[in-house]
Amino acid sequence: MHIKLAKHLGMCFGVRDAIAFAKTQSRQSPLTTLGDLVHNQGVLRELNDHGVRSTRDFDQIETSRVMITAHGSSDSVRQALDERRHEVLDATCPLVHHAHRLLTELVASGHFPLVIGKPGHVEVKGLTGDLEEFRIISGEADLEHIPPRPRYGVVAQTTQPIERVRSLVAALRERFPSAEVAFRDTVCQPTKNRQKAAKQLATESDVVIVIGGARSNNTHELYALCSRHCSRVYHIQRAEELREEWFFPSDLVGVTAGTSTPDDQIRSVVDWLEAWIVRSDFPARLSKVTN
Ligand code: SF4
Predict the structure, then answer these.
(1) pTM to 2 decimals?
(2) Sheet with 287-290: strands ordered across
(3) 2-10+189-290 maps to which CATH number?
(4) Measured from the CA of 93, which atom of ligand 1 is nearest?
(5) Which of 99, 267, 272, 275 could form a disulfide with 186 if both were Cys (CB 3.0 to 4.6 A apart)?
(6) Which fold has domain 13-93?
(7) Contacts with 35 (C-beta within 8 Å, 6 or more apart), sequence order
């Protein structure tokens, strides 16, 4: 059995920097993040140990300092925090800021705003929170509910699969052939790299393990992507969830992970696989491939 690790496996820089910022700031005084900093229970427990609390309910905030997460937020939310006299710390990923800027420019130039993403996701709420009118597109069925306008401005949630985004933009152009459709590609490069590497890994592997939080949207997207290219794909949060019956001696086992999965969780999965190979009847076949 072989183990192959996907390229671009570790945490993305946006999440990593936000966690480091929260830990550093919490040494000065306790703070609250507006919603979970990452969708990973292990990381959230660790932050909690550092005195970092999390809530989306303004009435539950007990600290004077409040941190906006890497997912970003609308200006109206920042203003509401200001009005409550909170000190606002901003851990918004620069690539999410970039998406906000591009959407603002599109609206300023008279385009009707469309956001390709998951309705209700915190990043999508942040992107749309200051807009009077907008539509969120999560699939082709949503195109039916878009009002006819001469100009549309389209951005995407940063963690959307780029192939789906492009195909929805093409479908939008087909549905409104006489409208101008200005598309700004805001899917972040770390997401594109990760998805491309995961697709290649899934194509080559007999079985793929996707590591990431149960509520992590980008992990679910990775799982869906891998499932289109490999028939045996398992989403786990930690090594303890692995099952020996998932693997055969001749398997090439691919390992990938969501953007908020810490290195030690990935390491413990690889350790589990290596230990199981050594315990099993085919130790001579053990090898690990990193591409
Ligand atoms: S997934 Fe992309 S946009 Fe989101 S935090 Fe990571 S680098 Fe930033």
Answers:
(1) 0.90
(2) 233-236, 207-211, 252-257, 2-5, 287-290
(3) 3.40.1010.20
(4) 8
(5) 99
(6) Rossmann fold (3.40.50)
(7) 54, 55, 56, 69, 71, 122
What stretch(es) of the chain map to CATH 3.40.50.11270?
13-93
Residues of the chain within CATH 3.40.1010.20 domain(s) are: 2-10+189-290, 95-183
Distance (Å) from CA 212 to ligand 1 centroid: 15
Strand partners, 148: none
Nearest one of 230, 189, 241 to 208, comparing CA atoms? 230
Q: Is the CB of 158 under 6 A from ligand 1?
A: yes
User: Is 123 in the active site?
Assistant: yes
- Considering the candidates 62, 123, 133, 244, report the single residue annotated as catalytic: 123
> pLDDT digits over 38-68, tens only?
888 888 888 999 889 999 999 999 999 999 9
* Ligand 1 and 191: CB distance under 6 A: yes
Query: Which strands form 65-68's sheet, in the order they lie side by side?
Result: 52-55, 31-34, 65-68, 87-90
**Ligand 1 atom at shortest distance from the alpha carbon of 70:** 5
> What pLDDT sits at residue 189?
96
Q: Is 70 in the pocket of ligand 1 (CB under 6 A)?
A: yes
Q: Whose CA is nearest to atom 5 of ligand 1?
A: 14
pLDDT at position 261 is 92
Indicate whether residue 159 lines ligand 1 (CB < 6 A). Answer: yes
Contact 271, 239 (CB under 8 A): yes
pLDDT at position 38, please?
A: 85
Which helix (H) or strand (E) element contains residue 4?
Answer: strand 2-5
Going from the Cα of 251 to the center of ligand 1, the distance in angstroms, rounded, reads: 32
In this prediction, the residues of the chain whose per-residue pLDDT falls under 70 are: 281-291
CATH code of the domain made up of 95-183: 3.40.1010.20
